[in-house]
Every structure is written in C-alpha cells, then in structure tokens.
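Task card 7
Instruction: Convert sequence to structure tokens.
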Amino acid sequence: MNFITPYKNLDEATTSLDNGGRYYNFLTTAEDGIISSAEVGKVAGLFNDRQKIVLYLAMCLSGLRVSEKRQVEKSLTEELKISYEKYFPKHLKPYEAKESGQLGTNAVITGVPVYIDSKKDFNGFVMMPIMTGSVMTMILIPIIDHYDVYHLKDEATSETFIIAHARSKEKLPQKRLMAGGILKELKLKKDEKGPVEKYLEVYYVAERVKKSSI
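Output:
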C-alpha cells in the first residue's frame, strides 16, 4: 500500500508522466507528448500490471480539472487508452461498494478508516495460495492474520466497508481519504460454501482533493 499525492495541475502531470520510461524502453521518448504504460509504470514502480497501472494513473489525475484530465487522457497511447477504459476504477461510497461493487474490478472508495486490531472485533476469511511441496493450493485464512484491516466509514451515513492492505508499520490516518484497490471476496465463515461479502484490497491511498469542474 502506497500513499500518493494527486497532481495539482496539468504541467505537473505531464512532466511526471511523459518521462521516457525505463532505460530499456527503447520505443518511448521523454517529453514527446505521448504517455505510454511503461512511462506510467516507471512513476508507479510497476512493470506489466495494467490493472494497477490504470488505478495509479486514475488516482493521480483525480486532482486535475476536467479539462486538464482530458488533455492527459488524449496523450495516452492507443494501447494504454484501451487498458484505461477497461480498468478505470469506479468511485464509490461504502454503501455503493456493498450494493453494486463488482469483484475483480478497480474501485476507489472514500471514507474515514478505523483500524481493526483484534479478531474479537472482526472475523472474516480470504483465499490465499500456499505451496505444498511443488503444488500450489488455495486455503482460507483469517484476513486479519495477513492484512491490516479497517472499517472505512462514510461520514454522512455511518455506513462502513471493509478495506485491507498488506501489513505495515504505517497505519492509515483516521481522516477522510480515498482508498484505491481491487474488490475481492471475503468469507464470513471458514467454509468455502459459506456466506460471503466484499472487501477492497488496497494498493494506493490519497487524500480527497477538491477540484474545479471546468
């Protein structure tokens, strides 16, 4: 999970993103007015994960005016535009994530995170890959054993949604923010056929930015 700061203006966005990519990206050139997935990946610290690259890009552009955002989008390569359209995250409130969030898709959910530090306060299970000899198997483990888990609370309605990120010494601040990640399945009991809910596996966090609609 990484904290990111959305771009404040068009110049900042293009200077950062139109960077030529890594040294081995021979087909990309810095400051040529074209932004490729390799260039976004360089800033994000990613390589070939298009879904996460688009999530990162969308959250970084969230602070721009609509007109500025459109200019950046026009600069994307055709290949990146296809991925951008395919993986562009839905911006949801906690109750919307519960009702209409689709598993496996990118989502950005806004709210105030409240850390869950005990299994007594929350219990749920997720599927994790485990190597047994040379065979990969999937087993259910308590989500709180593998992740830092939070209730993301909507200030207006007090509705909450479960979010989780890889364990870290740095916990999320208890203030309004945007959590970006992939919606995944949460088992309420250690039973593959038991009741399920959804949770957001968080990869990026950013403060909510107020922007002009122009």
